[in-house]
Amino acid sequence: MTGVRWEVREGVCRIVLDRPQVSNAVDLAAARGLAEAVEAAEATAVRAVLLTGEGARFCAGGDVQSFVAAAEPPMHLHQLATELEAALRRLSELPKPVVAAVQGAVAGAGLAFVLNADIVVAAHSTKFRMAYSGVGLTPDCGVSYLLPRAVGTQRALELALVGRTLTADEARDWGLVTQVVEDDALSAAAADIAAALANGSAAAFGQAKRLIRSSFSATREQSAADEARTIASAVTTDEAQELIRRFVNR
């Protein structure tokens, strides 16, 4: 049991964090299970990914109990942070859309799952908190890189230093969350989005997310050149040719 399970159905790879007894906190086995699930999502048959968490809370971050039980906590934490970040970065780099459905609580490294998804749907009662400083630890799994890019430096520092907890509506207003729905509508809303994306322009979606995500590490000139190359290549694909034909003949 890795604490992560996955299945592919109708073009959607559903990845489920499955350690509800510890609020889906991630240990080394779960990090490796996530890496295996992301590898499965790279298959050509997968056109979209839906990431969810079993139980009342989406993810409480790293499994503190596993840190305590480790023979050498520093080495264990370094390995866990490194392997989980690599799996999440690979998830964000998938050439297909990633939808996350979150509920209950998103804390610590749980924020990294949100930040590496492309579309985030949150249940109205969800709370978002960095939580690292509460146990004397520091951000990991790319949170310190991605969070200020999503919400701005001052807001990221407030979350890290003051320990502010965000409601789902605040998380949406700050740019962490795409959509907030009633708690009992979460599963259906996220599944509908993933299904619609799976039935859309997979190649175009993949390149669009790559262009947007890579723009942080490129100059405007480099980004513009990449855009031009990409759209010139896109117009030659069978998918684009068919969609363009439908557009001009409507």
UniProtKB/TrEMBL annotation:
A Pfam family annotated for this UniProt entry: ECH_1
CDD domains from the UniProt entry: crotonase-like
Cross-referenced InterPro entries: ClpP/crotonase-like_dom_sf, Enoyl-CoA_hyd/isom_CS, Enoyl-CoA_hydra/iso
Family matches, as PANTHER family: EG:BACN32G11.4 PROTEIN (PTHR43459:SF1), ENOYL-COA HYDRATASE (PTHR43459)
Family to which the UniProt record says this protein belongs: Belongs to the enoyl-CoA hydratase/isomerase family.
Protein name: Enoyl-CoA hydratase/isomerase family protein
Organism: Amycolatopsis silviterrae
